[in-house]
Design goal:
Uridine Diphospho-n-acetylenolpyruvylglucosamine Reductase, domain 2; 18 helices; alpha+beta; Cyt_P450_B; binds protoporphyrin IX containing FE; 2 domains; 42% helix; Cyt_P450_sf
Length: 490
Amino acid sequence: MTPESHSLTGTDDPSLGPPPGCPAHGLGPGGVRRLYGPEAEDLGAVYEKLRAEHGPVAPVLLHDDVPIWVVLGHAENMHMARTPSQFCRDSRLWTAVQDGTVKPDHPLMPIIAWQPMCSHAEGDEHLRLRGAVTAAMSTIDYRGIRRHINRATQYLVNKFCEEGRADLVSQFCEHLPMAVMCEILGMPNEYNDRIVQAARDLLKGTETSIASNAYIMDALMRLTALRRAAPKEDFTSHLINHPARLNDEEIGQHLRLVLIAAYENTANLLANVLRVVLTDPRFRAQLNGGQMTVPEAVEQSLWDEPPFSTILGYFAKQDTELGGQRIRKGDGLLLGIAPGNVDPRVRPDLKANMQGNRSHLAFSGGPHECPGQDIGRAIADVGVDALLTRLPDIQLDCEEHELRWQASISNRHLVELPVKFAPRPQQDVTQQPSINPAPRQSPNNWRVGTQEPSATASEPATAVAEPTPMPEPARRPGLFRRLLRWWGGK
Ligand code: HEM
C-alpha cells in the first residue's frame, strides 16, 4: 500500500475526530495513523500498534496529514540505509515536496528542506563532502580528546560538587559535548553558557532560533576565515585544506552540522546513560560490582533510548518493495531507529542485557552512517565514568516517575535529571578524577598551560571576539579565564 495524499478539507478536521477510547482515535484521513497530536504522545505505543497492524513497514501521517511510511523492522531499516541505489536522503525527490503537499511553513520544514550538506547529498557529491569531513575527523587525537573530556568533566563537576545537588541535564549533559566539540573544531575560547544556550534554542525552533543560529554561524564563519589565513592542527583547518576544496559556505554548513549533530545527540545520550545508571538496579549493581563497564551501559542505552528516534527521511528513487509493502518512486520513508531497535525479531526479550552488542540502529548504517560515533561514545564513556568517580554516592533526587520527558518525532529526551550526593571539595582539573583527590593547587600557582599543553592552539586574543564569560564562583575569581587560557594552550 502506498500512502495516499489527503487534502485538508473540512471533513478531515482533526478536532472533529472520534473520542478517546474509540478504535478510530488517532486515525487521520483514510484511517491512517497520525504521528502527531495528542493521540501520538506515546509514540512507542503507536509504533507497536502499527507493527501489529501492518508489519515492518507502515503508512502514517506527519503534521498537516502529510503521508509517509515509517520503517519499523530492524532488517528493513538497515536494508533501506544500505541500499543507495533504491533509497536516498535527497528530499527534493519526495513527491509530497514536489506536489506541494508539504507546505513551505510545515513545522518539520527545517529538517525536510534540502541543504548543500553531506547529510542530504548523494553519489559523488556525498563522497566529496563526506570524504572531507571523515578525513578531518581521522586527524583527531583520541588520547588528547579523552584527556580533554576528563578535564572538562572535572571543571563542570567542580561547579556543583560543593552544593550536594545538581540538575545533570542543564549543568552537565548539555555542557560537556559543547566543551569537547569547541576544542575539536579549534575554538575553545567560544565555549561558554551562551553557545550552549544558542545550540539548545536553535533546536527548539523558538522565535529566537534565527538569532541563535546567527550567533553560532558567526562564530563558525570567523573561525573559517581565521583558519583559511593561518591553518592549525585542528578539525577546521583539515576540513579547509582537504583536496575536495570546500568553499566557505560549505565549510560553515559542515562545521554547523558537526557541532549541532554532536551537541544534541551526545547531550541526550549522556542524560539517558546517567538516568539508567541512577535508576536501573541492574546497572547500578553491575557497575558497582564491576561486571558491566560504562561502555556496555552506553551501548544498552543506545538500544533502549537512541538519541535520534527517527530520521526524516529517506526517499525512494524507484518503485520497489520493502517489508511487504509496495513503495512508489518519490515516496518518503522515516528511518525508524527507536522502533527498529525493539523489533521483536531481533529482541524477543526487551529486558535482556545486550552486553555491549553494537548492532543497534542508533548511528544508522550505509553511506550516511554517523561518522562521529566514536567521538559520541568517547564523550559518554569518559564523561560518565569521570562523574561517577567524583560522586560515587550520586542518587536521583526525585521519584523516577517524576522525571519529565520531551518528545518529538525526532527524539525523546529528559527535561531534567535532579541528583543529590554528599557535598565534596573541588578538585584540580588537571588530575585524573578521584574519590580521594590530591589537594587543589593554590590558584596563584595554577599554571596548567605550562604543565600539559592543549591538543589545539587558540587564536590571538584580537582575532576571535572574547567570549561572554560564565559567572565565576565568588570565592575563586579568575578561574574560568585561567581555564580558558589553559584550554587554549597559553
Ligand atoms: C551519540 C551521539 C550521536 C548519535 C546517536 C548520532 C547519530 C547519527 C545519525 C542517526 C545520523 C544520520 C544517519 C543517516 O542519515 O542515516 C548521523 C549523521 C551524522 N553525524 Fe552523528 N550522531 C552522534 C554524534 C555525532 C558526533 C559526535 C559527530 C561529529 C563529531 C556527528 C556527526 C555526524 C555527521 C557529520 C552526520 C552526517 C553524515 C552523512 O550524512 O554522511 N555525530 N548521526
